[in-house]
């Protein structure tokens, strides 16, 4: 595993693991969706990765973490829609959803751990 990821954030590690799981699943989407929904999902995952890195590096994190929370919520909806459209098997949907739910909990905890401004 990449040393930077291991040393900097459990959330970043979870994101990396989720993306590692997701890319082979996206490769199985029908050809008509590889450049539509699959591309939207990839962009959403890229945003999550970018915001996670920014959240680790920035001193003031609240806005970044709120944007991260929104991106995780978007990914959850995209994955649910892909399953409902039949692009993801039930097993893949369940596994991917576990990653997303855990990531959502981690972001919520990260936001709650920030010092409150007066």
What characteristics describe this protein?
118 residues, mainly alpha, 81% helix, 0% strand, elongated
Write the layout of secondary structure elements.
Layout: H1 3-8, H2 10-27, H3 31-34, H4 37-57, H5 62-84, H6 90-112
Helix pairs in contact: 2-4, 2-6, 4-5, 5-6
Descriptive notes:
This protein starts with a helix and ends in a 6-residue tail after the last helix. The protein has 118 residues and is mainly α. The radius of gyration is 15 Å and the shape is elongated. The mean pLDDT is 91. The protein has helices spanning 3-8, 10-27, 31-34, 37-57, 62-84, 90-112.
Major β-sheet annotation: none
Global mean pLDDT: 91
Strand content: under 5%
Radius of gyration: 15 Å
Query: Low-confidence parts, pLDDT < 50 over ≥5 residues?
Result: none
Class inferred from helices and paired strands: mainly alpha
Number of helices: 6
Order of helices and strands: HHHHHH
Total strands: the figure is 0
Shape call: elongated
Taking the alpha carbons of the first and last residues, their distance comes to 40 Å
Q: What is the share of helical residues?
A: over 70%
């Amino acid at each position: 595993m990449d040393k930077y990821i291991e040393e900097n954030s459990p959330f970043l590690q979870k994101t990396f693991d989720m993306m590692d799981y997701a890319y082979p699943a996206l490769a199985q989407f029908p050809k008509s969706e590889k450049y539509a929904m699959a591309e939207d999902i990839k962009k959403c995952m890229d945003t999550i990765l970018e915001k996670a890195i920014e959240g680790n590096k920035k001193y003031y994190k609240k806005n970044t973490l709120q944007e991260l929370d929104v991106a995780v919520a978007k990914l959850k909806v995209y994955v649910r829609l892909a399953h409902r459209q039949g692009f993801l098997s039930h097993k893949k949907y369940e596994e991917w959803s576990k990653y997303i739910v855990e990531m959502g909990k981690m972001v919520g905890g990260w936001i709650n751990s920030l010092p409150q401004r007066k």
